[in-house]
Amino acid sequence: MKRKVLIILVSLCFALTSINLKPMKIVAEGSDDPYQFCNPQSEYYDKNRCTAYMTEQYENIRDIQNQINNARDNLEEAQKLATEYAQKADALNGEIEELTVKIDELVVKIDELVKSIEENEALVDELNTRVMGRMEESQKTMHFNEYLDFLLGAQGFDDLLRRIYGIKAIVEKEKNDRETLIDVINQLEKDKAELDESKAQLDKDREDVLKKQAEYIITQQYYQEIQEQTERDIENYQNALEDAKSSYADILDIADVSGIPSSEGFYSPVPGASISAGVWYYPASFGGGVHLGVDYAVGLGHSIYAPANGVIIVSADGCGTGYLGNSCGAGNGGVAYGGNQIYMITSVGGNVYALTFSHLLLGSPRAKGLVMAGEEIGKVGSSGNSTGPHCHIEMYYLGKGEMEDIENDYLYRKYSSSFNCGWGYSALNRLCENGVGAPCRLNPALYLGS
Q: How far does the chain reach from its first CA to its final CA, in angstroms?
């Protein structure tokens, strides 16, 4: 196990040069060779030097892990924003269609008004032609025109008056008809001007919406490009880690766990999950009963990360999909009903803790050995006594100590599968919150998030 730690650190420089992390100098042999000064069996073994060396390399590992975590956050945000702007762009289609329909309706009305104006202008032209024709005819005979003949043909004074008034009425009617037509034309042109103005406003509104939609689409494409680039970055980071880890095996066995610093705080082991059942009892809807951990519910196959630097001491695998009452777990190195499991011991802030992770996906539990905060240790499953995908986490306080204390003391203590805190109702007598000393049970939600 110790040998594996140093391989991770020694090989990291080759995989991370493209990420601008601190380079690591490797020499082939002698007292400057990490194989020598980190090997307790070597004449060049120097614990202080190895600790300083591994601390420096740990910073490299933490940097790349932080970059991966940040990239995951950026990816999630980019995906969210790309979807948001795509939805905004789609939402404008209805508004654009509505404006287009209104514009088309106005175009039809404007065309009808233009046609009506032309028809009325034709009537005015016809009336003007008729009046002008009559005037031209009257000019040919001057005083003996048709109107004079018409008047001279009167049979008496009364008849003459009637004929004079008749001519006047005809002239007045033609005048009124012409004025009426002109009024109609003026009103139609006024109506057309108003429709033209309305159409111009609708055209502008539609153009504004189209511009806004184009901006949304461009923004969506921008975030899609960020998403694609971030996915490539994550792949590159993961490949860098995998390439480094592939050459770790030869050195991890001689590594000194005490060379890895304690964590300052806890990472969220199942980010994005929701709590479906907390401590210390199941909710009534689940039938009640003692529940000694927290169930983090999330989709099948969701990654589970190490909440801190530490050592995996149990890795139990081999259980398929479980069901209510399924006891799988004990035969694979874990506890009955727990399915596939991971047990780890860690040091955070000068305190030593143990954590157990149950119901993992078949084939996903990480092997025993050193693990660093933020590294994947398994995937969410539904193995053992489980009715749906979740990760059941239990947490224990073991006492004071740093990583070197874990290596020199805690790893060699004889703990039961419950870290000497019991099971069932008797376990409720070992709750840290009641003032019980180490070892005692903690509420994971208070440390790992809810």
A: 33
